[in-house]
Amino acid sequence: MSETTAHAHPHVDVKEFHPRAHAAIHNPKIRQNFRKAMDGLMAKRTAAFEGWDLETLRDLGANIRLKALSNLPDLLEQLEQKLTENGIKVHWAVDGDEACRIVRDICVARDAKSVIKGKSMVSEEMELNHYLQDHGIEALESDLGEYIVQLADETPSHIIMPAIHKNTGEISELMHEKTGTDLSNDVEYLTASARQQLREKFMNADVGVSGVNFAVAETGTLCLVENEGNGRMTTTVPKCHIAVTGIEKVVPSLEDVSALLALLTRSATGQHITTYFNMISSPRKGEELDGPEEVHVVLVDNGRSSIYQDDELLDTLRCIRCGACMNHCPVYTRVGGHTYGTTYPGPIGKILMPHLIGLDEGRHLPTASSLCGACGEVCPVKIPIPDLLVRLRQESVDGDRLHPAKVRGHGAKRSTGEAMIWKGWAWMHASPGIYRLGTGVAAKFRALQPSKAGAWTDFRTVPKLAPKTLHQRMKERGQ
Ligand code: SF4
């Protein structure tokens, strides 16, 4: 089991979720940017699945992920063996810090001064960019959205579309200020300008770092899904390629990838297939003209093996990072991704982050949900997100007697005063005489009833105690 390290956004106090949510709700620009983007994504997803037997496909996706997870230790060993046979060097990292050190050591061994990065949420989890910069190695994001948030010194607000919180005008101003691009609302122009600046960096980068969507154990193949071609350049132009991935991304065979890919692209962006689908199976071979001389894979645990030990929480690891749960979440679409203060925002973040940062840090995350169930309904691999949220809520207070608490920091929300009130409440209800006495006294002194009950009454009215108890009224009626 691994102990994990820094995973919340640097300099952001995860516990300050409520003030940030309050500010976001009252920020019309954030609400407009997210509403517009999420409405578009939801419509595209619906259209992309038209004519498909979606439930059967979701069942298939869920079963593939369940099968892979049920056999995870063996699959990881098989993956390591195949990758090694293919000439890819495999590294294991127990947490984000170790993963960062591995990447740095590879860079140092190659005397690398600059790294170009493809999109990778695991590298966000590791805070790799800051780490490399602190060690004198330049790390530049090449995915357009990631490039924008890096220019703004921000973190991604969505796992698929990192800069979704910004509109074109804001991006134009940012690029003008940071890179001297002309102010323009022409998306083509802004994209071309970013492309030009990145192209030079690609040519000069010593190392390329990418994520992995699926790691195929049977063949030792790393699959990478992307739209911009930056993933292909990151993994082929620099002389050294380092892929970082969570240990749960392994699947048994290439056949499994096709079903998961169909679900991933449609659920994420409403595309039937992305523009690029990369399959990396080895470094450049002798007779080949391009590709990296060295390929490394860093398999990152970072709390995943701890999730793996619990039969219920294990479902969290099915995730294929499509972002559909976020796009359909009524909380996420109103407060935006930065409000969560965590690497993974929205519903997936609410069930994943407590394992990575502990429930003491992330105690508010499982409660930032209306439990409407939309996330569970759209999840392509049928993760029962609402059930997991309820489980984590229980653990954040006291752990569940049926499932001895396993999440780090469990019980952080437990308040002795509240626990005593509930204990008294249970005791009163277990004894009819005391119950009648208690409700009778409460009805008599109802004028003293407080009109506030903490945050619960910020948007609700306290129900007034009735002047007479039900028993008294029945008695008066002679019943
Ligand atoms: S939890 Fe499901 S819907 Fe959300 S990102 Fe993961 S796979 Fe997609």
From TrEMBL:
- The protein, known as: L-lactate dehydrogenase complex protein LldF
Query: InterPro entries from the entry?
Result: 4Fe4S_Fe-S-bd (IPR017896), 4Fe4S_Fe_S_CS (IPR017900), FTHF_cligase-like_sf (IPR024185), Helical_ferredxn (IPR009051), LUD_dom (IPR003741), LutB/LldF (IPR004452), LutB_C (IPR024569), NagB/RpiA_transferase-like (IPR037171)
Q: Where is the 4Fe-4S ferredoxin-type domain?
A: 310-339
Q: Where is the signal peptide?
A: none
Q: State the PROSITE patterns in the record.
A: 4FE4S_FER_1, 4FE4S_FER_2
Is Iron-sulfur found in the keyword set? yes
Molecular function (GO) terms listed?
Answer: 4 iron, 4 sulfur cluster binding; metal ion binding
Q: Keywords of this protein's UniProt record, alphabetized?
A: 4Fe-4S, Electron transport, Iron, Iron-sulfur, Metal-binding, Repeat, Transport
Coiled-coil residue spans: none
- Write down the NCBIfam families for this protein, in alphabetical order: LutB/LldF family L-lactate oxidation iron-sulfur protein
GO BP terms = lactate metabolic process
Q: Which organism is it from?
A: Marinobacter pelagius
